């Protein structure tokens, strides 16, 4: 499923729409080159869940946790850009937190196959500066995705 996102605001709006549909246990992966809008999607989602102020990119922290009352449900914003070996994920304890949190994972290709049931979103920068969103929609997201 492809969709064109016209500008940065449209990318953030995607995150806002996703926030209305997420539940604890959901995993959303965000792939694409640097500057494609992965963090903008995450920021829109976090803002719509109640986060005041701008969410920092978790590039250096790797995992940026958010919990109520800061947001309406627990979220782990994860950036795997600096992960060299998928075995490093065990040290982060993400599998334990996944059941009660929403996981937003940037650069999931650094841990291939780790989240097979994720809503997998890929952003591509087109020559005219717009973004192409490609979604791999698992069964658990089929009905919800139609609302996007």
From TrEMBL:
Intracellular or extracellular location(s): Cytoplasm
InterPro entries cross-referenced by the UniProt entry: P-loop_NTPase, T6A_TsaE
Domain of life: Bacteria
Record keywords: ATP-binding, Cytoplasm, Magnesium, Metal-binding, Nucleotide-binding, tRNA processing
PANTHER family the record matches: TRNA THREONYLCARBAMOYLADENOSINE BIOSYNTHESIS PROTEIN TSAE
Annotated NCBIfam families: T6A_YjeE
Annotated family: Belongs to the TsaE family.
Protein name per the record: tRNA threonylcarbamoyladenosine biosynthesis protein TsaE
């Amino acid at each position: 499923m492809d969709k064109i996102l016209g500008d940065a605001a449209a990318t953030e709006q995607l995150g806002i729409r996703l926030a209305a549909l997420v539940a604890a246990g959901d995993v959303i992966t965000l792939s694409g080159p640097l500057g494609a809008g992965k963090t903008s999607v995450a920021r829109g989602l976090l803002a719509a869940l109640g986060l005041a102020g701008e969410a920092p990119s978790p590039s250096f922290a790797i995992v940026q946790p958010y919990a109520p009352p800061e947001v309406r449900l627990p979220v782990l914003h994860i950036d795997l850009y600096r992960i060299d070996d998928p075995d490093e994920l065990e040290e982060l304890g993400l599998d334990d937190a996944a059941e009660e949190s929403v996981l937003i994972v940037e650069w999931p290709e650094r841990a291939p196959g780790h989240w097979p049931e994720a809503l997998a979103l890929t952003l591509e920068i087109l020559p005219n500066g717009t973004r192409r969103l490609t979604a791999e929609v698992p069964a658990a997201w089929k009905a919800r995705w139609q609302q996007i």
